[in-house]
Amino acid sequence: MYVAVKGGEAAIDNAHRLLADRRRGDRSVPALTLDQIAEQLALGVDRVMSEGSLYDRRLAALAIKQARGDLIEAVFLVRAYRTTLPRFGYAEPVDTGAMLIERRVSACYKDLPGGQLLGPTFDYTHRLLDEELDGDAEVGPGRLRMGAEEPVSRIADILGAEGLIEEDLDPSPLDEPGDINQTPMEFPLSRAMRLQSLSRGDEGFLLALGYSTQRGYARSHPFAGEIRIGEVEVEVCSPELGFAVPVGRVQLTECQMVNQFKGSAKAPPQFTRGYGLIFGQSERKAMAMALCDRALRAEELGEDIVAPPQDQEFVISHCDNVQATGFVEHLKLPHYVDFQAELGLVRSMRAEHAEPRDESLPDMKEAAE
Amino acid sequence: MEAEAHIAVRKNRMSVLARCNAGRLQELWDRLGLDPAHKTLRGPESGLVMLRGRVGGTGEAFNLGEATVTRASVRLEDGSVGHAMALGRDGAKARLSAIIDALCQNLETAALIDAEVVAPMQEELDRADETRRQQTAATRVDFFTMVRGED
Amino acid sequence: MQAEAHMLEGGFAEPVLEAQATFRAVMDAMARPAGIVRIGPNATPPAPLTPLAGAIACTLLDADTPVWLDPLLSGSEAVRAWLGFHTGTRFASAPDEATFALFRDPAGMPPLDQFAQGTQEYPDRSTTLILQLESLESGPPLTFGGPGIKREATIAPRGLPADFAAQWAENTRRFPRGVDLILTAGDALACLPRSARLMEREG
Lengths: 369, 151, 203
Description:
The structure holds three protein chains of three kinds.
Chain A: H1 9-24, H2 34-40, H3 42-52, E1 54-55, H4 57-66, H5 71-82, E2 87-93, E3 100-105, H6 155-160, H7 191-199, H8 203-214, E4 222-238, E5 243-261, E6 270-279, H9 283-296, H10 312-318, H11 321-329, H12 336-358, H13 362-368
Antiparallel strand pairs in A: 3-4, 4-5, 5-6
Helix pairs in contact in A: 2-4, 3-4, 3-5, 4-5, 7-9, 8-9
Chain B: H1 2-19, H2 22-32, E1 38-54, E2 61-76, E3 81-87, H3 91-103, H4 107-137
Antiparallel strand pairs in B: 1-2, 2-3
Helix pairs in contact in B: 1-4, 2-4
Chain C: H1 15-31, E1 37-38, H2 51-60, E2 67-69, H3 71-74, H4 77-87, E3 100-103, E4 128-132, E5 142-145, E6 153-155, H5 164-173, E7 180-185, E8 188-192, E9 197-200
Parallel strand pairs in C: 2-3, 3-4, 4-7
Antiparallel strand pairs in C: 1-8, 5-6, 5-9, 7-8
Helix pairs in contact in C: 1-2
GO molecular function (chain B): lyase activity
Pfam families (chain B): PhnG (PF06754)
Organism (chain B): Kumtagia ephedrae
């Protein structure tokens, strides 16, 4: 229960002023520019775009600056901004097969067509802090390797040729995928709506859940079938033009997780898949999302639901960090009346609790109960 | 068939205009010295489009998340209408792109604009893509099998 | 097919401010059922869509609200192109799939129960009907009571279906399900939310 109280305006005003002061920090240090954040803290920007569910590098950079680097606060700012904009419509589904690839690896096949392309990865770095970065030393450009472009095929196509992996369901142009922004959540959710939730879900939460599936909570024997990062074209349907208008490119990370499946009455033993698709470059999250997606398909695949990652309501209701922040942090709002009631209750319970001790034979009374 | 070819050219032009650097576009545009009178039909206005993916990459569509876009539509004095939409929130670039789209309804003007504005920018964008492709190619793993020793 | 230029003109000149003003007027009218609110129509859609109905469409419709048009409106390519361009709306093929419905000829409209009625859990998932009428003051008077109405309120719309009173009584019985109406005539608008009860029947 909340009670309206007045007061504190001056305190709030001064707190905001103090926030601005602390955000700026030592005035002898140059202020950060949004270009610096977008260029040099690019993966932080990606995370804010992904969890803010809004692809706009500059807005995400601004949010990070305003939130003093608190990425969940920045996500909150982006989500709030998003609600002020009208929605013009829907883009055509992106074709990740036609991606301009910056990185692509598979843990299933060494020599798959297109090869293992490491890209700008942290893998194989020694995780030793580099003192040279404490400065602005000249950095050379990436090396080039000439040669004809080789088509980069998908893992599903390779396994699919032998029928060893489940196929994607044929797209039905009539079915509109649900949108979690527009409709209240009713469980069970379609896989399309789950993927939308997971894609904007909290990276840490998905990572922990994905990890738990590997440790035995919903075992699914995952292999990283393919991870690819790169840019895809976006086209938006335009009724006035009668064709889909290209509006530019976005960077995405896609993960195809390949999982063993022992088969069921309906399907022979084969590999099943979990899918992850994320704004920007975020391999960790794309992989975690794919693990969660696969675990959430338990019911569809006739598996026993025994662990939290398989429980739609548990995963989807708790993966959004803006929602989670709101509910956890609301505890700091005044609960004065609630607490007074609780205080009265605890006092009366204590009084009751103390009473039997005054009697001569407390043990017998307890035994009788 | 002719209409299809016309749409393909127009789409390609729109793609270059959407991806190009706003400053570079303005620079090339200014060199043409064109400044047609126009009426705004809509925008420039910023809003959202919902981006979509496909389950598993090729399956059913799902909503991935939104992106900011800015659009504009203009009409020139001769009645030709131009539209533009691009990711981001640059209203001036959207208006200029719509004017260019409208001018290009005239085939002669289109040839001039394509040669002087679109083609140079497309070449620059393609070159940047090629550099990225080659940089990525340089990180390709060349496996070689070690000779197995026999104990 | 590319729409003709004239079909694309006549949207709000100041989309944010004009949509806000129109929204405010519709909200006020919805809060005081059967009370007439006047606004200067500021959209100029192609006929037979009226300026006021066009302004309301620009304010309420978007890509996520499918609209159903009565035959007189849907028969006009210009109206469809104009609505699509300025609101981004999609066209519903059946009345019960529509979030909004627009009528040039309300007298011949399908029965109210053919539109989306919402569900007990989500009564908001219903159709809002926007009617272009000849007048709100020169037709047979209808008196309403209910939330937002002090004692009673009377309007006299001309051009409603002959059995409107019976249909509205049915609509009231479906509460909390049911449809809401926005009545327009010239620059006047009045609303009949499903909570407005018809007090007496006029011949």
